[in-house]
Every structure is written in structure tokens, then in C-alpha cells.
Amino acid sequence: xxxxxxxxxxxxxxxxxxxxxxxxxxxxxxxxxxxxxxxxxxxxxxxxxxxxxxxxxxxxxxxxxxxxxxxxxxxxxxxxxxxxxxxxxxxxxxxxxxxxxxxxxxxxxxxxxxxxxxxxxxxxxxxxxxxxxxxxxxxxxxxxxxxxxxxxxxxxxxxxxxxxxxxxxxxxxxxxxxxxxxxxxxxxxxxxxxxxxxxxxxxxxxxxxxxxxxxxxxxxxxxxxxxxxxxxxxxxxxxxxxxxxxxxxxxxxxxxxxxxxxxxxxxxxxxxxxxxxxxxxxxxxxxxxxxxxxxxxxxxxxxxxxxxxxxxxxxxxxxxxxxxxxxxxxxxxxxxxxxxxxxxxxxxxxxxxxxxxxxxxxxxxxxxxxxxxxxxxxxxxxxxxxxxxxxxxxxxxxxxxxxxxxxxxxxxxxxxxxxxxxxxxxxxxxxxxxxxxxxxxxxxxxxxxxxxxxxxxxxxxxxxxxxxxxxxxxxxxxxxxxxxxxxxxxxxxx
Length: 494
Ligand SMILES: [Zn+2]
Hints:
A 9-stranded mixed sheet has the order 1-2-5-6-7-8-9-10-11, covered by helices on one side. It contains 16 helices and 17 strands. It has 2 domains: 2-47; 180-491, Penicillin V Acylase, Chain A (4-Layer Sandwich). By secondary structure, the protein is of the alpha+beta class.
């Protein structure tokens, strides 16, 4: 914030030692003049928040119920620059978290990621997104002391897909991968339409599951108007050109979300990074067919997901289960698809995952059963208000009672004696971190409802938890409280 710095610098002159060493009479005469000058300069500076012409049309709003909204607009380089400049502090902070986690989980130094970003991912990134990534690195330089460069930014963008690459890399190099590198069970989501919803049009909802360290920072709203493609709005993490947890919509009327395929293994270094394909789909897809095509073009297997898509133009919904070797697109105008990280296609499950569908106690299997119950019990009544309740649901289908844990749609691994397989240890600070809901009417106006923190209203308190479970002390420098905020309505710029 250039203006803030200018104003403070000038206003604080009177307290700087050595500035006013003249006699009292001189001071009395000059002080009002200097004060007036300071006010004029400050007023001028307020009108010009950042004089860089690349910042034209970019804006950042004050925090809204835990969310930080930015509007980015222009060429790829301009969008990137605005992103880097408006969120410089958040990117630096979010980068610390991702590097800490990636290095902890993989036992590999950050140089490994930087080199792989340059040698493996960069050659397959189209010019448009290269320019935007470079723009972020350039925008970061507007903050004093900035040290991140383009390879840090590319590596950061691939945070969710590195484990897929490293599993293959380790196998090829005779290294035993740490168990924590498993493709994790992130997120709960559903999309319903036709006879399942109150108005016959679609309703779609998603909560992001990740570590609370990530999750408390996964609260950026990116409202982006690029020179090419569609205006779109999505939730996201600082420094990413894609949503990452993937919830967003564009002005062609397409709404997109996903949940990860647990235990997936597969990677193609000749493919296009998932983060590029996901971003491209958000920006360019106009139909379900477009979406399916863009996600499959150059599929590298990274961050393999069960994608859920809805189209405001037709109220048709779809599920794209995107493995590397097995891909299945299902679509309907009357029905629902749910996501809780369970592989659906039996061939994909067998050939590309280590997932056990027969173990009812697994988080994914338990949540799958719960989604089925909710869809059947509420057929014909589902709307956005009900979707918000679903995301706050604590019903454990095994214990047959309300008890928040890794088995409930509103996930709380931090409250679970079992933890979550190889991904998260018992009581590890992880689970649902933020929530989004929209329906056909809201999405056609590029609007959604969002709740930062758990939708159920339970806040996570870092110091007390780490005191009780010191095994997670390695997170203490970056793990803060994750407070549950109320639901809020988010609009893209008209
Ligand atoms: Zn909860």
C-alpha cells in the first residue's frame, strides 16, 4: 500500500530525531506548512493507491467474514502482477506453510521442488500461464525484502500434485517413499438437480479438507477478468493461479468443484500440470463437454480428482472421474453426484489406486454412506440452506450418532483417536477448513455463499491443542487458531 507508507512517513516526520532542531520560532512558523503539505501529499496518494499502470482495475476489499477478496483484470502478465502486489504478504506467509509441509512429508529439500518445477512442469505450461506466473513473481518485488522467484511460484502452484510425481520419482530412484506421501482424502461435495432439489435446478456444495495450517489461509476469493476467456470467480490460496481446492464459476454459467481420489498412483512427466488444466477449464470451459476435454488434454495424472460440474444454462450436472488411464464422464438432468474421495469406477479403483472400498470405517466410505442418506432423505427438498447444513453434518454412520471426526462430512481429524490413514495421524490438526455453496440462480449471477472455518461453528484453538498433542509441535510456528466464521455472500464484480 504505497499511500499508507507515504502518509506514515510524512506524518511521522515530527517525531524523527534531528528533523526539527531549529529554534522554537522557526518551528512554530514551519510546522503548519509542513503539516499542510503532508495532508496534501497524503490526499493525493490516497487517490492513487499504486501508481504502477499494471494495477489498473485491480482491487482488494477489506476482510469479509474471514475471506479476502481481490479483483484482478487484464493481460496474463497484468493479472499476475496484481496478484503478487495485492497479496504479497499472504503469498510469503502461505509459501512458508507449503514448503514446511512439503519438506516434512517428502523428506526432500526445497531445491528438489524448484528444479522439478523448472525441468518437469515448465516445458508444458502454455505462454499465457507462464506470463501470469512470472507476473506474480514480479508483483511480489513491490514489497521490500522479497526473495521468491518464478521457480518458487511454479513449485508452490503444484503443491497438490507433487506427491504424485515424487512417488514415481522415488520408485525410479530406488527410494522408499514416506507413507505421508499418499494421495489424501480431501473434501466433501455434492451436486444435485431435477427431482432432488426444491426448485428443480441444481445445487452444489463443497468443503475443503486439508491441514488447518493450509486451511486457515485458503480464504482468498479471486475474481478475475482476463482479456481472453471468461470472467470467473473462485476460492483459493495465496500465490496460486488455480483454486487448488477447486470451487468456482465463470460467466459462461459453468460451476466446477471436486474431491480427490484417495490412494491414487500415477504420473506422466510429459503431461500438463493439473494446476494448469484446472485453471484453463475455469477460464475457458463453456459446457460440460468443454470441461471434460480441457481436463483430459495433456492429463499428467497429478492431483487426480472426481470432478463435479453444473451448467446454469441447462441445469445438467456431471461427474468426471479423471484417472490417468481410466476416465469416466457421467451426466444427468435428474439426479445427484456426491464426492467424499472414494474412487467410483471399479477398473480405475483396481488399476490406479490402493483404496479399500470394503473397509466401512474409512473416512471416504463412511462419508459416502452419509451422503447417500442425506440425498435420499431430502429428495425434492434440497436447496442452498439445506446444503449448508449438510456441510456442517456430524453424523457418524458407524457410531450411529452425532460425533465430529474424520468420518463426518464436516471433518475433524483433530478430534479423532483414529486419525486418517497414512495422510494424518490421530489428533492431527486437519479436516474441513472452509465451505462454499451455490445454486443455479446464484451462479448465474456469479455469486456464492461461503463460510471460513468449520461450518458447524466449532473453532480450533492452536495453543491448547499443541499443548495437549506436542507431537505436532513442528507446526507451531505457523499454526494459528482457525475460527469458525458465519456464512457470507460473495459476489463477483458485475
Ligand atoms: Zn464440524
